[in-house]
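Dear colleagues,

For the upcoming journal club I promised to circulate an example of a predicted protein-ligand complex. I picked one with serine because it came up in last month's discussion. The inputs are reproduced below in full, followed by the predicted structure.
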Amino acid sequence: MIIMDHKTLRKKFLDFFEKRGHKVVPSSSLIPTDPSVLFTTAGMQQFKPYYTGDADAMKDFGSLNVASIQRCLRTSDIDEVGDESHLTFFEMLGNFSFGGYGKKEAIEYAYEFIKELGLKIDYVSVFGGGEGIPADEESEKIWQAVNPLLEIKKTGRDDNFWGPTGDEGPCGPTTEIFINGVEIWNIVFNQYFQEKDKTLRPIKLGIDTGMGFERLLATVRGVKNIFETDLFLPIIELLPGDLSEKNKRIIADHLKAATFLLAEGVKPSNKGSEYVLRRLIRKVVVFEHLNVNLFSKTESAISKVMEIYSGIYPELNNTEIISEFKGERDKFNKTSIQGIKEAEKITKEDLEDPIKLGNIVFHIHESFGLPPDATTEILRNRGFDNFIVEDFKNTIAARRAEHQEISRAGAEKKFGGHGLILDTDELKAGNEEELAKVTRLHTATHLLLAALREVFGQEIEQRGSDITPERLRFDFNFPRKLSFEELKRAEDIVDSAIAADMTVSFEEMDLEDAKKSGARFLPGEKYPEKVKVYFIGALSKELCGGPHVSKTSEIGTFIITKEEAVSAGIRRIRAIVK
Ligand code: SER
């Protein structure tokens, strides 16, 4: 028997639908344009406007029917990766129609394609109705006509209704095909549009089908699991033999997902999709610490990912993938090595007390940037795997909430919970004297950002600022501890600006003009249409509400008192003025 490789199966699928009047459309990016979702999680996502009539498929594709193989990323199952069927990165085969055909053709095509592959359907499922939505009797009848011997199961909204992706969009009842007990093909009948408030409004029927490529390939090749296919075996075979099967799968999956994200220019950071990338890489780096032989293999594993998908995704011809991976690994190793040591010190007794364990794991994350799932991995590697993850996760969540509560309560206690004469998020003062002090510290904060940018370059941005009458506290992006000399240079720049007695002034501008002027602003922050831009000579230009001193000499002497990590990649400086 000829074993089908992944490239042949891809071609078979696309050819099948091309012959039946579908235009083959390339996969869209993993990062969708819809801001309410982090990643592309389904093939239909790039086609959302065609279902609603907001875009014209005939005009864009020359056909009302399209087919694609879409790269997808889902984080919902990230903790399950390592078993036989879960992945973060996967591909989805799909055929779609925006008014070209209906339920009958969609079901018949699927049945025919499965038959062409020589597979046998266990059973199918259809929507049995529920929550005010009528049962899909039409699909049931179509299946009965296609094959009267087929078992048809009926289920409710939880199992046989799909979508939308994001806040709103097309959705509808489904019919699903099961082979060897596994769901292989999900055929969605987009008959509704779900609004942001969750109400459903009927739309013209559209077809959206999705078939997990890894699962299908494993089924066609007759192997037990998705990792035994040519999409994974070449990566897994590269990994050190003494790693457990489960860990090899996690590493292969995470490296593949990271490679695809890096290929699209995503950079690891602490926000959104960038944070997911960071977590994926860091988990692999933790494994490198746990298995010395892995370190020399990860780069070849990344190259192997590129080789497997060569000719399919041109994005992978990106020479920066490996250097970006190494950069993030270095960053992590610099900040988190201590965290790994701390995780290795956790005792058997700690493990028996979920609250204590949660506190330790929380502390390791806060202080050394080692994410909880990495600590969990270290514990598993030490042979501890019967602790209750849920319990300690709850403790971590509670500690996080408490932490935020303490900072709020701290401010309230200090100021008696009321009577603040100034309370922006950033600055707080209870009386005139404190107001004068926080104003001086505030201008000093602008000078500090300007100084750090002089010392380290224009990549430095503010990531947080908190000013009390005692001190300023300033967070910014930087990958490692600052040396004494570097701190001294920054301090000197601020002090010379004070000595130069520069004028502090502001101009009111339209937000867009202010941003265009190159003034510093906080990405993601909501600003009004009209903003103030504060200037300190030519040294500093920032969008800011004030208040500030009018001459820098009013600040006094500026002294940095402390430098520390807030989390990986973010440093914090505390300073006072005298
Ligand atoms: N949108 C459906 C899914 O993701 C079918 O493509 O399963």
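Two points we might discuss: Residues 320-345 form the longest helix (26 residues). The first strand starts at residue 23 and ends at 24.

See you all on Thursday,
B. R.
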